[in-house]
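Teaching assistant here, posting this on the class forum so everyone can see the example we discussed in section. The complex has two components, and the goal was to see what a joint structure prediction looks like when all of them are supplied at once.
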Amino acid sequence: MGMQQTNTLTRRKFLGALGATGAACVAAGYLGVPRLAEAADAPAEAPVNVDELIAKEVGPGKVALEKVKIDTPARTENGALVRFPISVDHPMEADNYIAMLAIFVDANPKPLVGRFEFTPASGKAEVELRIKMAKASQVRAIAKSNKGALYGAVMTIEVAEGGCAG
Amino acid sequence: MADIGEPKVRAPEKPLKKGELALIKTLIKHPMESGLRKDKNTGETIPAHFIETITAEYGGATIMKATWTGAVSKNPFFSFYLKADKAGPVNVTWKDNKGQEWKEKAELKVE
């Protein structure tokens, strides 16, 4: 766990638009409003402030980069289908549990991918799904305990071919 | 539309002991259109059509709720855990942004 976190931190540097994007994507949507421009390739803009989005969607406060693990390779061939398993190493007891987990892809037109709400009966705050990435991006998984403590993991994933992400 | 629905839920085959963790796997066919894509031929934006919520009920309570956007991949696979308590169904409900709803369940065996 400790080693994994160190790796995650050293990978935080933001890689630019390395990945090609699908020609059919309107990839320049801003705050959820699709822009109907000529959009063969995604412009290298990231207008959404993801830190503010995290404060709004998960909660305000300092995120401790520990306890959360994103178990996926740092490079994906297909941005339309990025395997995304996330786990939180935290008790799930009646008065001390992970209440929420959220995923953000910084470079997607809409960075929020999803939120997951748990209860102590979940037993374990761990989910797996497949997500879309328009291009190479920093991805973040942020967890919140029932007491409001925030934990997170950050990594950069390179994308060989982008998916039409929302 | 043919390529939508057919929800599936899978719970562990073998009986679990009370307190043991159960991995629940779900799958459904859905286009998961983000609303940010254009039709290659017409140039028209393809309207958003994606699953917004998935909820799991077990033992009379909602134990997990997921809220998604169009950035979840097409035909979404999703797995989560629950702590086994009593034998009974795990009911999963998917709802999309057009108001369509699907339900499926798996029986959890508890010794």
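For the discussion questions: Chain B has one domain: 5-108. Chain B touches chain A through 37 residues (CB under 8 Å). Think about how each of these relates to the inputs above.
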